[in-house]
Amino acid sequence: MDLSAYPHAVAMSAKEFVDWSTNVMDDIARSSGAKRTLDKVAGPLFNWGMRNAIYPLHFGIACCALEMAAASGPRFDTERYGMVFRSSPRQCDVLLVNGWVTNKLRPALRRLYEEMPDPKWVVAMGECAISGGPWYDSYNVVQGVDTFIPVDIYIPGCPPRPEAMIDGFLRLHQKIKVSKLGGFMDD
Amino acid sequence: MAKMWINMGPQHPMTHGLWNLRVEVDGETITDAEPVIGYLHRGWEKMVEDRHYPQIIPMADRLCYGSSFTWSHVYCLAAEDLMGVEVPERAKYIRVMSDELQRIGSHLMWLAAIGPDLGNLTIFLYAMRERELFMDLFQSLCGARMTYNFPRIGGVRNDAPPNWERDLVRTLDYFEKRMDEYEDLVDRNSVFRMRMVDLAPLSAKDAINLGVTGPSLRGSGVKYDVRHNDPYEIYDELDWHMCVRDEGDVYARYRVRMDEMRMSVQIVRECLKKMPKSGPIRVKPPRTAPVGTGMARMEDPRGESLMYIIGDGTDKPFRLKVRSPFFVTLSASPVMLRSYKVADVPSIMGMLDVCMGETDR
Amino acid sequence: MEETVTYTIDQVKSKIASAFPTEVKFEDKVRPRRLFMSANKDALLKLCTMLKDELGFDHCSCVSGVDRCDRFQSVYHICSCSSNITLEIVVDLPHDNPEVDSVTPLWGGANWHEREAFDMFGIIYKGHPRLERLLLPADYTFFPMRKDCETGRK
Q1: How many domains does chain C have?
Q2: What digits encode the pLDDT tens for the residues A51-69?
Q3: Which of A158, A162, B107, C117 has the most Cβ atoms closer than 10 angstroms to its Cβ?
């Protein structure tokens, strides 16, 4: 085939074609102003939806888990904030660590964190998750969950009252609002 | 069909508390089971060897967080046995009342946990609502909802505030009416009953030999309750009876706990009548313990809890051993699981009332 | 309906003393419904068999390990559901070779307690059906509850 007759044709390998095609949509959307318009309209809407439907993982470790359960009880209802506890990590947004993490649990918890899809957040609830808590000199307790998982919100208390846990989640709402997530093609 | 081992846990909607149940299944039928624990082991017994005696009380609370008063109570009893401290009368009554209120709270938490396992989501909301009332009582008594740090070696930390007894009587009256509602919701539900009746029977002889204690033992027809057979505090002065069932299946264990809640209400009412109206509630214990040993046994909501303490003349214990009732019941659970289906696992294990904090320590 | 015989503390004490005059020593401590003794480690299994078969002690409450720096101890708390007596039996073990017979064949309730004592102290229970690590991860090489084990973080 004589390509000199088609000077505008470009030869690419398969990988080059994939890279080019993913970038051309991005470039067109950004340069034409379509992304900006869409973000102005839909971005806040997606962000509102994202922060008002936070699904924590149904994972109770220790004492703070009882306060988490009390928070989902009828007195301090968390479902009115959109928080529905899901059992599978693939369906969750938030990993709520509520108790001390031992060396035996550490790989399992890291795996749960990696199984969760983006965007995800981690909330460390209670002193044990923040820093090891009363078990500061234990040979089997990890001194703070932020040594192996990045944490977004820390809720102090031993155990924190359910109102404190809800306050922590409302701060997470603020954090999500400020981060302006929800843009078109942002990931 | 080949047999294979399946992991149910450590993250599983059923596992209350953090543990792993490995079951060997042949199709849907369980042929063997092996609980794997240790996910919550924090070396409690090693850490207490580096704490002063009063500092261990809040640590004991966090052994089983579902029934934290009973654990700090048994620690105080063991330390008092070691140091030879005599607790005043009014403090004993306050301790017994708090024990029984804690028993109701722990059983309500159990009820809230097994409901969703067996498909009855409403009972979770009802039981949590009632539990909040009892947590309010504890909050006005000692300031905390869950891990109280209330008993002291030599008594309790403070006396009941004014109007506490009035609130207590109101709560108990309200709660007794609500118990009838639960029984309507749960016992008359034929699906619930089908999942519980004639499931996993445990004979009395097996139960005693395997060390099972508490409602699981009394559900198999054995008349053994530490409050009755080996009384501590003022239980021998009160007029109450054990709740025992003969069938030995999951339904019997469930009914024993429901009956125990009513019996606890009766015990608290009687304590209110018999309690001395005023008096000291605390005695100052010595700072260092004598060389020797102390031991105390108690009826925890889950069974018999025991603490064995060795003192060495300093202000820190030399050794503090904790016997947790669920540790032993869990070791006996493979016997109950064999030849039942995988879908029966939440029903059987839930009725044993899981608390992993005390098991792993 | 079986006939259950109940014993008093003095009856139990005299029966044990007559069967094991040298191997078992009673302590002076007096508490209601309790009997405190220390036993020789070689006589332990025979003593426990006698307690279970002849004296009706059917419930093994607890088996603990203790590290007394110069020796180990294995402490047994055994109850009788019918007589309402709790025994505390302390068995001394040599520090360099802490081995004792397992009471798991008699009382299944001792199974996990002995495993835990092995996990924490390294006390070997001969005849235990499965003496493995229970609470700690299987790859830990130290026995944390021993007094010479410094966990390093204070």
Answers
A1: 1
A2: 899 999 988 888 899 999 9
A3: C117
- What's the ipTM? 0.91
Q: What does the alpha-carbon distance between residue C44 and residue C47 come to, in Å, rounded to a whole number?
A: 5
Residue A101 sits in a domain whose CATH number is 3.40.50.12280
Backbone angles phi, psi at B27, to 5 degrees: 75, -115
Judge whether C1 lies within some domain. no
Whether C58 and B310 lie within 8 Å, measured CB to CB: no
State which residue of chain C sits closest to A139, comparing Cα positions. C151
Domain region containing B340: 4-360
Cα of first residue to Cα of last residue in chain B, in angstroms, is 39
- So what's the pLDDT on residue A187? 55
A162, A71 contact by CB (below 8 A): yes
Pick the closest to residue B349 from B359, B336, B358 (CA basis): B336
Closest residue, chain C, to A106 (C-alpha): C137
Question: Cβ contact (<8 Å) for A139 and C137?
Answer: no
**pLDDT tens, B264-295?**
999 999 999 999 888 899 999 999 999 999 99
In a domain, C112, yes or no: yes
| Residue A56 lies inside a defined structural domain of this protein | no
Answer whether residue C135 is part of any domain.
no
Distance from CA of B54 to the nearest CA of C (A): 19
| C71-80 vs B291-300, strand pairing mode | unpaired
- Mutation to test the A interface, candidates C116, C120, C149, C153, most A Cβ within 10 Å: C153
B58 to A134: CB separation less than 8 angstroms, yes or no = yes
Spell out which residues of chain A touch residue C151, defining contact as CB-CB under 8 Å.
Answer: 137-139
Question: Which residue range is the domain that position A100 belongs to?
Answer: 63-179
